[in-house]
């Protein structure tokens, strides 16, 4: 199955990759956990979730993570999805003003870079 990486992000102890499939559906593949010495307290968890398209995935990502999504670390953004992400970053900045601090710096850097694979 041919898939195209659209977006990749990291979090403390995990992260995910978001791929576009040939039928334009989107697949999120991620993992988290395993940071603590006790695997019972912090087991490694992996997942794969399908979405209709990137717009639906992005709405889910923003909703699921609330205002904390901006604390995640963007690693890669395909040119195709940058306008959607840019709109959310700009909205976050306009709503939070000077309180955004360094939280949006990595997002803006990734949005403004030519990070093609």
What features would you describe in this structure?
There is one protein chain. This protein has one domain (4-112). A hairpin with a 2-residue loop joins strand 1 (4-11) and strand 2 (14-20). Helices cover 30% and strands 29% of the residues. The mean pLDDT is 88. The chain has a 5-stranded antiparallel beta sheet. By secondary structure, the protein is α+β, with helices and mostly antiparallel strands. The longest helix has 15 residues, at 82-96. The chain is built from 3 helices and 5 strands, in the order ββββαβαα. The protein starts with a strand and ends in a 5-residue tail after the last helix.
Q: What is the secondary structure topology, with strand pairs?
A:
Layout: E1 4-11, E2 14-20, E3 26-32, E4 45-51, H1 54-65, E5 73-77, H2 82-96, H3 105-112
Antiparallel strand pairs: 1-2, 1-5, 2-3, 3-4
Key features?
117 residues; alpha+beta; five-stranded antiparallel sheet; 3 helices; globular
Tell me the span between the first and last alpha carbons.
18 Å
The total count of strands amounts to 5
Largest sheet: 5 strands, antiparallel
Mean pLDDT: 88
- CA radius of gyration is 15 Å
Q: Quick gist of this model?
A:
Helix content is 30%, strand content 29%. The chain has 117 residues and is an alpha+beta fold.
């Amino acid at each position: 199955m041919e898939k195209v990486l659209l977006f990749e992000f990291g979090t403390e102890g995990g992260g995910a990759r978001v791929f576009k499939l040939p039928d334009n559906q989107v697949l999120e593949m991620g993992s988290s956990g395993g940071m603590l010495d006790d695997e019972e307290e912090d087991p490694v968890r992996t997942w794969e979730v399908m979405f209709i398209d990137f717009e639906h995935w992005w709405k889910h990502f923003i909703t699921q993570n609330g205002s904390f999504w901006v604390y995640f670390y963007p690693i890669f953004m395909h040119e195709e999805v940058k306008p959607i992400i840019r709109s959310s970053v700009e909205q976050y900045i306009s709503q939070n003003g000077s309180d955004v601090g360094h939280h949006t710096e990595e997002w803006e850097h990734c949005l403004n870079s030519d990070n093609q694979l």
